[in-house]
């Protein structure tokens, strides 16, 4: 399996040939200027919530890929308003699990806010747990540290994508606690450095995780990780 980081919280998974894209925000991210959105294709797009820095390139990528878009009910309604056909939208809700050709995807709680770019209520913000060929991956989305994360420990998570930028989400210190709550040692940092309020000291952050016995990866924009 392969993960490719596109900046902010946008990542793509290659699940043995099935392309799964999460929170597509590329063309408006100054750190992702070298990425050509027209070359990104996805079989599935998952949205954690409707804020602009998580959905800006959804419509363009969906159209060029004929992707299926998965989101919580209210955010899914906004997706349809962007011209995505009903049969290309899967709406579900917290606690629900999709059984898809590449594996299962459970929608889980995130502590944040959610509105769509047109200012409408977007439902709850969410995270996702992917169960794919014996591996479990947690994408936390935009979230504060929350005790709800302790419920995920039972899934024996192999890889967790956690926000570390602070200001709008939990910071690195809270992410270390989150890693303990979910009992996962392999962390990929997301939601940092794109804008001044969420800029981090990478060296200090790496040391923080190392001192806690955790493996933190901060891939460059466009870089891929095999796992």
TrEMBL record:
Q: List, alphabetically, the InterPro entries matched.
A: Metallo-B-lactamas (IPR001279), RibonucZ/Hydroxyglut_hydro (IPR036866), UPF0173_UPF0282_UlaG_hydrolase (IPR050114)
Instruction: Tell me yes or no: is Hydrolase among this UniProt entry's keywords.
Output: yes
Residue intervals of the Metallo-beta-lactamase domain = 7-191
Answer yes or no on keyword Transcription regulation.
Answer: no
Q: What Gene Ontology terms describe what this protein does at the molecular function level?
A: hydrolase activity
The domain of life is Bacteria
* Record keywords: Hydrolase
> What is the recorded name of this protein?
Metal-dependent hydrolase
């Amino acid at each position: 399996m392969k993960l490719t980081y596109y900046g902010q919280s946008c990542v793509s998974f290659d699940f043995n040939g099935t392309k799964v894209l999460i929170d597509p925000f590329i063309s408006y991210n100054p750190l992702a200027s070298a990425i050509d959105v027209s070359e990104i294709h996805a079989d599935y797009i998952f949205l954690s919530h409707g804020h602009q820095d998580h959905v800006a390139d959804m419509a363009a990528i969906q159209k060029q890929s004929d992707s299926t878009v998965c989101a919580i009910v209210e955010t899914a309604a906004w997706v349809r308003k962007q011209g995505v056909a009903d049969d290309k939208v899967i709406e579900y809700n917290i606690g629900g699990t999709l059984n898809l050709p590449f594996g299962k995807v459970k929608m889980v709680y995130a502590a944040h806010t959610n509105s769509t770019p047109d200012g409408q209520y977007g439902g709850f913000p969410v995270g996702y747990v992917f169960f794919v060929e014996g591996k479990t991956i947690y994408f936390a989305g935009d979230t504060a540290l929350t005790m709800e994360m302790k419920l995920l420990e039972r899934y024996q998570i192999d890889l967790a994508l956690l926000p570390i930028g602070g200001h709008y989400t939990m910071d690195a210190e809270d992410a270390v606690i989150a890693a303990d709550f979910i009992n996962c040692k392999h962390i990929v940092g997301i939601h940092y450095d794109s804008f001044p309020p969420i800029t981090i000291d990478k060296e200090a952050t790496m040391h923080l995780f190392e001192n806690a016995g955790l493996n933190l990866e901060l891939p460059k924009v466009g870089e891929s990780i095999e796992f």
